[in-house]
Amino acid sequence: MDISILYYTCNRISDFFSNNVRNHLLESSGGKIPIISISHKPMDFGENICVSGMEVSVYSVYKQILMGAKRAKTRYVACAEDDALYGSEHFECKPPDDTFLYNVNRWGVTRDFYFYRQRRLMSMCVAPTQLMIDTLET
Questions:
Q1: What's the pLDDT at 123?
Q2: pLDDT grade, residue 10 (50/70/90)?
């Protein structure tokens, strides 16, 4: 495989929900894509990097992604958040060396309704590993 999944979490959602999300991630990736999990608590999910003690913030998310990208041994990385589901096609994207790709075909769900919103989110990003590292280090 030439892509790794960077699964990042602050471990604040319920175990029931997070276990289902991780199982779906394994299923949609065919169980063949390396997963690097970057979490605030130790996890048995792929290769784990535990960042206990790191504050929980948007800035920390970028730090977690950078740590995972530096650990990846593949040409591309795909971001995966702990509360998002991904289709298998998401991991088939291979952007040019100078491009971040974002899957903007994303549905959101709340307790009361669901909605479609075309928006670029880091959780939907697939990028060349070195470009991700260079960008986040800058």
A1: 81
A2: very high
Instruction: Give the type of residue at 44.
Output: D
Question: Going by DSSP bridges, is the β-strand pair 114-116/47-50 parallel, antiparallel, or unpaired?
Answer: unpaired
Q: Is the pTM of this model over 0.85?
A: yes
Task: Mark out the alpha helices in 46-95 (DSSP H runs).
Answer: 58-71
pLDDT at residue 115, rounded to an integer: 58
The pair of structure tokens assigned to 52 is 């206990």
Query: Residues 6 or more apart from 111 whose CB is under 8 A from it?
Result: none
Cα separation, 74 vs 35, whole angstroms? 11
Instruction: Return d(Cα 94, Cα 85) in angstroms, integer.
Output: 19
Where are the extended beta strands (E) located within 10-100?
35-39, 47-50, 76-81
On the question of pLDDT at 122 being above 90, the answer is no
65's tokens: 């992604």
